């Protein structure tokens, strides 16, 4: 596979995943959930249901939805934080799922957290090492670049079970909390769409790693 073909395939995969996730999020952002609470409030209830002490829920910027293990807090974008749509509730509960993982010592999350420092270094240096290796014709630098990039791929692979499990915890809670089946189906579509972005990114990175290995040979 040529590098040009790799770029085209990567772009198509990424664009397709982004279109699908935005379509599902927008669709269910206009569907009110039966909970008379905002997404943040439902997320707090999910933590209590799972025996996890309630942690800070913060209002972030657009598309800022994440759990931060450094200070054990959850940040939600304005819609998920304030509204009670199916998208808002599903998003908040997904992030609450990460908080449950952290509180209960979910092993894939532990592994992912341990890899963060290494991956931060690898992500910032692998391309530099690759370019220097090519321009200076130093095979050792090229090999180092591939190894560094491989750590980034491993990180993405470990991220997949973390994300899938958080969504599974969210769906389990929403079902136990009595969310109607039609809303539950919508929440499932939103969470599957979001998971698709991680799958797409991982797939692209695997293709890139295989291309590097093939070019190295």
Write structural notes for this entry.
- The chain has 217 residues and is mainly alpha-helical.
- It is built from seven helices and three strands, in the order H-H-E-E-E-H-H-H-H-H.
- The protein has a three-stranded mixed beta sheet with strand order 1-3-2.
- A hairpin with a 4-residue loop joins strand 2 (66-68) and strand 3 (73-76).
- The longest helix is centred in the last third of the chain and has 38 residues, at 139-176.
- The model has no long low-confidence stretch (mean pLDDT 93).
Spatial separation of the terminal alpha carbons: 13 Å
Radius of gyration (CA) equals 20 Å
Q: Give the structural class.
A: mainly alpha
Structure summary, number of beta strands: 3
Order the strands across the largest sheet as they lie in space: 1-3-2
Q: Largest sheet, if any?
A: 3 strands, mixed
Helix proportion of residues, in percent?
over 70%
Percent of sequence in beta strands: under 5%
What is the general shape?
elongated
Stretches where pLDDT falls below 50 for ≥5 residues?
Answer: none
How confident overall, as mean pLDDT?
93
Number of helices: 7
Give the ordered list of helices and strands. Answer: HHEEEHHHHH
Short summary:
The protein has 217 residues and is mainly α.
List the topology elements.
Blueprint: H1 3-29, H2 39-49, E1 57-59, E2 66-68, E3 73-76, H3 78-82, H4 86-104, H5 107-136, H6 139-176, H7 181-216
Parallel strand pairs: 1-3
Antiparallel strand pairs: 2-3
Task: Name its key features.
5% strand; elongated; three-stranded mixed sheet; 3 strands; 217 residues; single chain; mainly alpha
């Amino acid at each position: 596979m040529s590098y040009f073909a790799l770029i085209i395939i990567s772009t198509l995969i990424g664009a397709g995943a982004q279109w699908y996730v935005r379509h599902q999020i927008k669709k269910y952002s206009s569907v009110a959930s039966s909970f008379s609470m905002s997404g943040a409030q439902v997320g707090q209830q999910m933590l209590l249901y799972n025996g996890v002490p309630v942690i800070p829920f913060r209002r972030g910027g657009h598309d800022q939805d994440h759990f931060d293990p450094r200070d054990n807090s959850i940040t939600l974008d304005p819609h998920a934080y304030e509204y009670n749509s199916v998208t808002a509730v599903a998003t908040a509960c997904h992030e609450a799922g990460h908080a449950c993982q952290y509180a209960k010592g979910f092993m894939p999350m532990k592994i992912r957290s341990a890899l963060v420092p290494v991956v931060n270094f690898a992500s910032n240096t692998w391309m530099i090492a690759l370019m220097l290796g090519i321009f200076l014709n130093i095979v050792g630098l090229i090999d180092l670049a591939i190894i560094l990039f491989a750590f980034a791929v491993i990180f993405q692979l470990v991220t997949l079970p973390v994300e899938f499990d958080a969504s599974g915890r969210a769906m389990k809670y929403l079902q136990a909390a009595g969310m109607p089946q039609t809303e539950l189906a919508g929440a499932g579509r939103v969470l599957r769409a979001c998971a698709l972005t991680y799958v797409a990114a991982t797939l692209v990175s695997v293709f890139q790693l295989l291309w590097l290995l093939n070019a190295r040979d």
